[in-house]
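Q: What does the assembly look like in three dimensions?
Context provided by user:
Components: two
Sequences:
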Amino acid sequence: MKTILIVDDSRTVRESLKFFLTEGGYQVIEGCDGQDALKVIEGKTCDLVITDVNMPNMDGLTLIGELRQKKEFKFTPILVLTTESQQNIMDKGKELGATGWIVKPFDNDKVMAVIKKVIGE
Amino acid sequence: MMNQFKETFKEEAYELLGNLEDLLMELEDNPDNPDSISAVFRAIHTIKGSASMFDFEGIASFTHVVESVLDGVREGSVKVSKELIDLTLISRDHILAMLNAESDSTPEFEAESADIISRMKILTGEEAEDSASSGTKASETEKEEEAVEKTFRIQFKPDENLFLSGTNPLLLLNELEEMGEYACICHNESIPDFEVFNPEVCYVSWDIYLTTKKTINEVKDVFIFLDSRSEIDVSVISDWQNVLSSDESRKLGEILIDKGLIQASQLEDILNSRKKIGELLVEQGIVQESDVKSALEEQKISNSIKQNLNTGSAATIRVQSAKLDSLVDTVGELVTAQARLNQLALQAKSSSLMSLAEQIERLTADLRDNTMSLRMVPIGTTFSRFKRLVRDLSSSLDKNIQLITKGGDTELDKNVIEKLNDPLVHVIRNSIDHGIESSESRREKGKDEMGTITLDAHYTGANVQLQIRDDGQGLNKEAILKKAVEREIVSPDAQLSDEEIYNLIFMPGFSTAQSVTSVSGRGVGMDVVRKQIDALNGSIHIKSEEGVGTEFSFHLPFTLAIIEGLLVRINDEKYVFPLSMVQACMELTREERTSHGKKRLVEYRESVIPYIRLREIFTEESDLPDREHLVIIQTETSITGFVVDEVIGDHQTVIKNMGKLYKDIHYITGATILGDGSVALILDVNRISALAKVEEAGE
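A: Here is the predicted structure of the complete assembly.
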């Protein structure tokens, strides 16, 4: 079973994402901001990271940079949660090593389509 | 499902709004503290993001404006002032009020939102307005292009560091492959020697040729996550019109020039020598071998498209359907004769005769499949007729109903489709007349005023499933039961499952309509539907939910003429099971016969299933053999074992009707002639399974 790390400070987003992903047959681990995420995945690996950008303590872009420094996460796909209007964030995310993005608001189909694109079935 | 998150969202929003008040106070005291500014922004940002996901439209569009103002504060273009703090606090209260209300999109709220927004605009200038309108329009859908098949050339040269962004290019190629006809050439010349090879670098690139109905934007979207460091070029190399208008197929050289890989003059030089162009170009180091391979692939594709078009124009001829029918009959006879030939060849023990018989068997099978496919026509032709029916009937009843059809390209035997017309008319009429409510009552119930009937055809294994769904009031179980009791169709104390109650509407003389209308409700109809579907060897199932709608599904065989059967023996008689329904064959030993006492139950795959002895149904009177065989049959509703003396094997079954004299015989749907000229009866397994179920319940 593939494992996905969700990082978002909004409980609603985390819970709805978790719902879609567990329905889709994935195992989910959660972090409520960048710092928390780094703590949660300490010594672990996962198949995909989905992270929000704007979070307290450590934002999503910094998290991407930190993850890419770790040898376990060098090639792990990372998706950024953004809103339509944040083109500059998408660009910055790409620069730091993000794989792609999920545009909010999202639904099940959208999330699954993007996940299929970056980690396959 | 979304409702459970609506609550979570509300809870979270209350929490955030609670904090927001404190944060704003803090910001007022320290207007330059970037941490306070981000925290305020974040709270609003989070509320906005989730609100739009869970249908809080009013909150979403309002917070979007507030967010963009606060974004201005973050970037320093808007100053923190008392007015700003005041307005943000008012906004906060306004969001809270919308959150508490039943609906966040009432006219009052909208007016207040507009008022606050206009005050914000005065405070910040035009910026807020711009970003506000861009946010709400995001979901407008593009007009669909008419789907025309095109061939795309996709040149995909990933960035060397592609892997470091977690991208797997193979997944992108897979995505393209799923879009249509796909050919891929990999350029791997850049892969260095092993000593200097760096596994973290992407050395390869690809040329992909894709023939699909998707638009160029859909194809480009596959690469949406890649930035400008990867080179992606998508171009249409042919569409139908272009290929038609060009007289000649494209030459290899032209394609290479077109791709900018060689110059026209270089090509001319090469053409003057006598070697193959491709070889020479590679020899002279002008292009890579894989470039030539790629261009050759492109040439092949455009040639094949052209060929398809040329043959396509003369590909259909009209034939009288009677001629087809007689062809099918003849092929049926041939299949029977071929079975006899096989048997004779076996008896004669002549190897040359055997090999000839096998060859004829293969040819016959091909001929049979081709012949059957000749009679297959897409069901869509029938669907279009119903559009008119729905339109006329609904307007005569003063209802507003649309018909949606899906799976029109599902193919069925022409004869099956013809016989489907009447049952479909009946069911659709019933939906329009009794199922879908009048516009007023739909409005009262909060439904879309426009009712919808959906016709949906698709393949399920060896069958075709045809569903007729409406979003009307659903079947009224109580009314059906009451009527059935009145008509003495069931006894008043009968315990019936939902499906059994729904099935009562198929009983002759049953009608629950309050009054007789010209459209339906004459009390004939549904029983006729059942009979007609039975005659097609099909079955009907009903699902219904009160207030939500009703779904009739017809399960139909592809064809009426030939089926794959399993031949069995009971005493000296032979019978045929439709092979598509056979799950397994196993032995039934003496011990197993008595293992469940008198009950006829047997263990199968960790469950216990009922079995039925066919010799009793067909009153074959002789002693039970020591060893019996069990054929496990899966129908749509149950798994049942059928006990026979011997399982003989597969049999190509050409179905012969039993004739009018035998039309009342139960448990048999037809007959077939075996290789030795004898007759085998084809079993109606649905009916016999139902019998086993009744017996099981009775015991």
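Follow-up: Residues 630 and 643 of chain B are 5 Å apart (CA to CA).
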